[in-house]
Design a protein that fits this description.
Blueprint lengths: L1 E3 L1 H7 L1 H7 L3 H7 L2 E3 L5 E4 L10 E3 L19 E3 L19 E3 L7 E2 L10 E3 L12 E2 L1 H7 L5 E3 L19 E3 L8 H8 L7 E3 L11 H8 L5 E2 L2 E2 L2 H24 L10 H15 L12
Parallel strand pairs: 1-3, 2-4, 4-5, 5-6, 6-8, 7-9, 8-10, 10-11, 11-12, 12-13
Antiparallel strand pairs: 13-14
Helix pairs in contact: 5-6, 6-7
């Protein structure tokens, strides 16, 4: 196993450094991209000499902890998918970070992102969870990402409820395939709050098998262009919206059109008594005519 540090970086770029005629320290300061994917790296050591780093590739390694990146205030892209990370931590100084890739790790709680006001993409798919576990979200992290996050990938994480995600109202791309989402009505309620949503993938969830699933989500998501890999025809969307509006108007008329003259009751005798009394009240007394013949 290897540790990512200044020496390892220097060895990997030694030929390029010599070509430029720079010292190790000078050359490390010029680096903006580091490519160390699939290098059997287990730890992140001191790489603070790479002070101008903007993109770091560390996917397909054996890293267990996110650490020693506090110096990288210019970092915009961090690729750490397919490692052994269990916690999202030590990222608060990366305030320029816009894309974070953490899929294929062992994360159970999404947290520690409260300071990342520029984060636009968050990829968390395929966490290696213990049986019965589901990926959870810290409400503080969700609130902090509400005004910046545009892309969220939470595929295959045993998730059965997305109501906590309703605050992410700037989402444009949402992937939650191969989870356990089953309540289409709840999905409509959440996705109806995302006015910017363009692409959504829910394939492999139980909700996909419910009647009118696709129609209901198309009418709930007014801007959606692609659902489960299939484009949405604008004429189809307008037809479904008009049909839903017509149905709701008809139901409203049915609920308000009929007036009930007497209180509802299960007592049939009472209803009959009220009816009989009312009929008697309506009857006018007939005048009596007596003829005196004698």
């Amino acid at each position: 196993m290897a540790c990512l540090n200044a020496d390892l970086i220097a060895k990997s770029v030694n030929r390029l450094r010599k070509k430029r005629g720079l010292s190790y320290a000078e050359f490390l300061r010029t680096l903006t991209h580091l490519h160390f994917s699939n290098k059997n790296i287990e730890d992140i050591g001191d790489i603070s000499m790479c002070r101008n780093l903007t993109v770091l590739y560390l996917y397909d390694n054996h890293i267990t902890q996110i650490c020693n990146l506090g110096f990288a205030s210019n970092l915009t892209h961090l690729y750490m998918q397919n490692n052994n990370i269990t916690r999202v931590e030590n990222l608060s100084n990366l305030q320029m970070l816009s894309k974070l890739y953490l899929g294929g790790n062992r994360i159970t709680v999404v947290e520690g992102l409260e300071q990342l006001s520029e984060l636009q993409e968050l990829h968390l798919e395929n966490q290696r969870l213990a049986p019965g576990e589901t990926l959870l979200f810290d409400p503080r992290t969700l609130l902090s990402l509400a005004k910046s996050l545009c892309v969220l990938n939470i595929n295959n994480n045993n998730i059965d409820d997305v109501r906590d995600l309703a605050v992410l109202q700037d989402l444009q791309h949402f992937s939650a395939a191969d989870n356990k989402l089953h309540n289409t009505e709840e999905l409509e309620g959440v996705f109806g709050l995302w006015p910017q949503l363009l692409h959504m993938d829910l394939r492999g969830n139980p909700a996909c098998k419910t009647p009118k699933y696709r129609d209901r989500l198309i009418t709930a998501c007014k801007s959606l262009e692609v659902l489960d890999g299939r484009e949405i025809n604008e004429l189809t969307r307008q037809f479904l919206i008009n049909w839903k509006a017509s149905k709701e108007a008809k139901m409203k008329r049915n609920n308000t059109g009929a007036l009930i003259p007497y209180p509802l009751t299960n007592d049939l005798n009472r209803v009959q008594g009220l009816t009989s009394t009312a009929v008697q009240r309506r009857k006018k007394p007939q005048p009596s005519f007596h003829t005196d013949l004698g």
